[in-house]
Each structure stands twice: as C-alpha cells, then as structure tokens.
Amino acid sequence: MNICALTICLAKNPMTKQCELAEPSCVQLKCAPTEMIIFLRKELFDVDFDFVCQDSKTTETDSGWLLTVPLGACGMQAEHVGDHIRFQLVIKATDDEKEVFFQSDFKPQVTTTCNFKSQATIKSSRMFSNSLSDLSASSDQTIYSWEKSVSLKFKNGESGEEPLHFGDEILVETEWAQSVRKNFPVDFSLKNCYVESENGEFEIIRDGCPARIVNGKLENSLRQKTLRWKSFSFQEKNHEPQKLRCTVSFCLRDNSCLVKTC
Fold first, then answer.
1. What's the topology of domain 119-252?
2. 11 φ, ψ to 5°?
3. Which of 31-45, 124-138, 209-223 has the lowest mean pLDDT?
4. Is 44 exposed, middle or buried (0-12, 13-18, 19+ CB in 10 A)?
5. With 50 as the cut, is the pLDDT of residue 137 above it?
6. Which CATH number applies to 3-117?
7. Whether this model's pTM surpasses 0.85
8. Residues of CATH 2.60.40 domain(s) within the chain?
C-alpha cells in the first residue's frame, strides 16, 4: 500500500524517495518549557492512530489527535548542539499494522523539533535594600528560551518585614517555575550572578564559583540551587536598592552537565 498516495498531508520526494510532509497544517507544534504539544490531522497517515506511551497524553478530536509529550520521553532524542539544546521526536507509520509508532523502522515519517537556548538571564522580581541599620509549533530554526522557566526567590529580606544589617546572610533559591517530572532530562546551574544598584555591581558568582569576599555559598541539588552571601553596600547611605541578576546555564543530565570544582 502506498500511504503517500492516500493522504493529502504527504507526498513522495522524487529525490529521496521518502514520504514527506506536503501540507503544513497537518502537523502543528507548540514547544512548551517542559513538553511538546503536537496536533496531527487524521489525514496525515490515513490509518487508525494507536500510540501508547506512559508519559504522554493523547486526546482525539473531530479533525485529529492532540499529543502532549514531555521533553525527553517516548523515544524523543535530546542533544546539546552549539548554544542550544535540541529535542526531536520522530513519528512514523507502518502499512501492515496500520498503526503509528514512535520508533525508527517505519515510513512515512514526521519529525517535530524544539530548540532551547542553553543560557538565559534571570533577575530578582523585587529589589532588596541595605542600610546601616534596617531594610525597609515549531521550526528547526526557531530557538526558544527557558528564561521564564527558572524562578528566583528571596527567602529573607524580600518583603521588608525582616530587617537586614550589613553582614546579615541573604538567602536566594532558584528552581524550575513549572512542575517537571522526576526524570526530566534538563538541569541548570548558576554561571554568573551580580548584585547591582545604581552605584555599581559586584559579581558574587563567577563561572559557577561564589565570591569568598562576601562569604558566598552555593548549594546544588537537582532542580534547585541555593545561593547565600553576606549583605553589603556600594556606599554608606541609609538606603541603596539592589537587584540580583544571574546567568543560568542549561544542560542535559546524561552527558553535558559538568560538575564544577571551585
């Protein structure tokens, strides 16, 4: 059976002799921070859709199927390519079984790709102040960002309810803003962090290592990083609003995450 001849979605490439996507609306993709969301029109394969993956969710509509596949699950390939991390999912069909598989031995096929930048910059949502006394669907060329996927939260001194003095410890936690599954394939690290104000900036983390002059400490655990340092000011005055800015590096947990020795 020639599946290419039976569907408006596919056409045979005369050069490669492969069935390829001819109608873009047959496959629609949204790259979310933790998952691929894929819509497949029923005309795509002209076969019954039968896909079982424990980590995915499939919803049938009148015109097709909506798949939600976590990044790195269901046979999805992940690799670190240059300055981004690429996820690719290959969907292939078989003539004999009339099913759709996420495997590598059947044709025709459709490949969905999501690219994410391997670095992002995050900033504190609120200012903290020091004083001498108190503190008052996708394309291979499209590269997405995890910039809003990592949250930065002050565990003390953010609301102004607790006073901070020079030398008091400031505690900041960074973690994934979205809920991620236990075996999510991506981790992150704090590469560089700056305390900045209108009077200057100071690098409290350089290349993954905290600054000793402010007694900086960095605790790394899966999906959460905790940063501590001693409160300081750029000049002697009653109030100096400051912000924290960090560069975050993302990596694949299986082969591209390097343990930094400071």
1. Immunoglobulin-like (2.60.40)
2. -150, 150
3. 124-138
4. buried
5. no
6. 2.60.40
7. no
8. 3-117, 119-252
